[in-house]
Design brief:
A two-stranded antiparallel ribbon has the order 1-2. With about 425 residues, it is an all-alpha fold. The chain contains 18 helices and two strands. Helix 6 packs parallel to helix 11.
């Protein structure tokens, strides 16, 4: 550690001790302007045998215990580096060098699990309901929900998941270590939007190191640190995914992508279903997305794809009304096609006259019957001049007689042919 960094840390340690209570808020707001302080504190945390490690951890705990939100966020930005220092020392089986870090982490944990009155906190989380809109979906875009008895009984009800109360811890053990660390990561993820770029890089590095140490992937990453495998839990990996996802969408594309692959690699080896579900969901959502690596100073956010509005989906929704309308359109199109085919073909269907009387058909159904003189009347009555009734009646009777005789002859011919074929068949048989 350089002498300049030591001077910065010493000034920081002495400055806060002399502050009056009224000046704490102003002092907390001025910490972000001290650009050389944060890198110097990272160097102290990474050097396990530094003389400044214990006073720095004590000062960070005082910041968190003060209750000032900005001072608490200042302490939380070093949480990923503190977690890695604790895990690496535990893997090296040298617990004497991590006593102050353990005290700091346990102090933050015990402060977070209780409220201002000293009662245990019970964290609650409301499970999103598909029947209510959110930033991810619109209920009308999903379609109509069947109004069953169960759906009506559960309408308007929200499922709430509770976590806690959490037990206070006085020391780290093999059984409670990752319970405490997972809860601390939960507190860190709740303040992700306030974390610096250095802190986001630290959470990505922590994720990769924890998941690849002691496995063949460590050689691929060319990490020269510890080679001991670290035990992890599914809940711990899920919290790591939350921080990685935020880092990916806010400028740390390279480190975030490597960390995402490394944690998924470890989740596959351990067969953790929750971690695999979250990790693959994040990877699928980022597939093809344009992540900006220079978005470190802009607005912090997480990229999501909004579902289409209801009008775009309901326009083609299949309902009983649309089915009837489709049927009507189909019948109309068939009628139009038949008419058009008859018109285009140019073949006129001949009009068959059973009576054999020729003449034009009028609009009201009357026919123009012929007259002996070549003229005809619409109502079929002949003119009184000449032979008015005799000629017309004789022609009509003659034509009807011919038609009756023709029909009888055709019927007789058909019967003769049928009887002949039947007798022939019998004789052949």
């Amino acid at each position: 550690m350089l002498a300049m960094d030591q001077g910065v840390v010493e000034d920081w340690l002495s400055e806060y001790k002399t502050l009056p209570d009224s000046a704490v808020s102003t002092y907390a707001a001025s910490l972000k302007d001290k650009g050389v302080l944060v890198p110097a504190l990272y160097k102290v945390i990474r050097e396990n045998y530094s003389d400044f490690l214990e006073p720095v951890c004590h000062q960070l705990f005082e910041f968190y215990r003060s209750g000032e939100p900005q001072l608490q966020r200042f302490t939380l930005q070093f949480l990923p580096e503190l977690l890695w220092s604790l895990l690496s020392v535990s893997a090296a089986r040298d617990p004497h060098t991590s006593g102050c870090i353990e005290a700091l982490l346990l102090g933050i944990y015990n402060l977070e699990i209780i409220d201002k009155d000293g009662q245990s906190k019970i964290l609650s989380f409301t499970v999103p309901s598909l029947s209510k809109p959110s930033v991810y979906h619109e209920p009308s875009a999903i379609g109509s929900i069947a109004l069953t008895e169960g759906a009506l009984a559960n309408r308007g009800l929200s499922r709430v998941v509770y976590s806690g109360p959490h037990l206070q811890r006085e020391t780290f053990t093999a059984q409670n270590r990752f319970d405490v660390l997972t809860f601390l990561l939960l507190c860190y993820n709740a303040a992700l939007s306030y974390m610096t770029a250095t802190s986001l890089q630290s959470i990505c590095q922590l994720s990769s190191r924890v998941c690849i140490c002691g496995y063949p992937r460590q050689q691929i990453r060319r990490y020269k640190g510890i080679t001991t495998r670290l035990t992890v839990t599914s809940e711990f990996l899920v919290q790591l995914f939350t921080g990685i996802h935020y880092a990916l969408c806010n400028g740390e594309v390279e480190l975030g992508s490597k960390a995402l692959d490394d944690v998924l690699y470890r989740a596959q080896l351990e067969l953790f279903p929750e971690a695999l579900l979250v990790g693959n969901a994040i990877k699928s959502s980022l597939h093809g997305a344009a992540l900006k690596s220079n978005n470190k100073e802009g607005a912090r956010s997480i990229q999501v794809e909004i579902t289409p509005t209801s009008s775009r989906i309901s326009r083609n929704a299949v309902t009983s009304l649309s089915i009837r309308g489709h049927r009507w359109k189909r019948h109309e199109s068939q009628e139009v096609s038949v008419d058009s085919d008859a018109a285009v073909g140019g073949v006129a269907i001949p009009e068959i006259s059973v009576t054999g009387v020729s003449g034009e058909r009028m609009a009201n159904g009357d026919s123009l019957r012929p007259r002996p003189d070549g003229r005809a009347q619409p109502d079929g009555r002949a003119q009184p001049d000449g032979d008015p009734l005799g000629a017309a009646s004789e022609v009509g009777v003659d034509l009807r007689g011919q038609e009756v005789r023709r029909q009888k002859s055709v019927r007789r011919m058909v019967e003769n042919e049928g009887s002949g074929s039947a007798s022939t068949g019998r004789s052949q048989y």
